[in-house]
């Protein structure tokens, strides 16, 4: 019996060691550096033991989360601590079972335990909730917009509508964890400084992780989204370079009464049947895929691979924009309304690309994400669809 246990322990150790060698994205902390490292940035940490079967099964999902989030411009790090070798940390953190997952907000050494199901949509929603909760300000009694440094106006659900009801407003819709938003932040403050004494326009921002209703109303589907709003209505989405001079030139152009073709006018001139790309939600998903071929991208806005695929996916949608029976769509799995949908569709990583035919799942695409390869994939199944 003792020999059996010894052999079993050996194989469990070898299996765990081989698994750790494959985990190239997850950061490993020890007794020596744990406290110092979590003080530098937001962290989501898995406390585990190599022999723990549940830990071994969960490790691939944790590594997948780390691959998506452990990038240079990310606002959070995904890490782990081996409690069999670094027991002092685990004892201090009151770890009594494996795996235990704890979120550490920047500046707070007291971790919050994750108690949900261990799937990617649940983990990412938990991350969003913790970042949002940590950044919330005590503004319950505030009824006027908060004017920040250099004239930048921060809008909330209570102040947005009344503030933009009249006049010109250039508004940044963002998420705190978004790397591109973080890079834009100092430039946006500089732009606000340029117009802080100008009565013709205000430079503002909206945190979509806190003010979801506003962002849904203005159909914000990615971060950062920069919108020009006049008298409460969206006029144009800024799509140019995000340098100060480019942004300022756009503002000056938009201030001219006849200086630009309005986006709202352009949209009304586009026949509805030519629009084949759109963001689906749990409420519109069934209707959106019920006929023809539907190629759907399930994604998370903060996912690096998703960001790199985004312009290619837009080009794919444009390419098939006038093709009957083809719909190129996407679903944001980080939104609470879509959490169950992504679970039901078996989404375990981002981006996941699934082809549907007449409402039924046909194929999960795992090939190259180049425009040519994706286009050939759609054409192949379109031809098969036409032959039926």
TrEMBL record:
Biological-process GO terms, alphabetical: protein folding
A GO-annotated cellular component: endoplasmic reticulum
Key words of the record: Redox-active center, Repeat, Signal
GO molecular function: protein disulfide isomerase activity
Keyword Transit peptide in record: no
First and last residue of the signal peptide: 1-18
Top-rank taxon: Eukaryota
Record NCBIfam families: pdi_dom (TIGR01126)
Protein name as annotated: Thioredoxin domain-containing protein
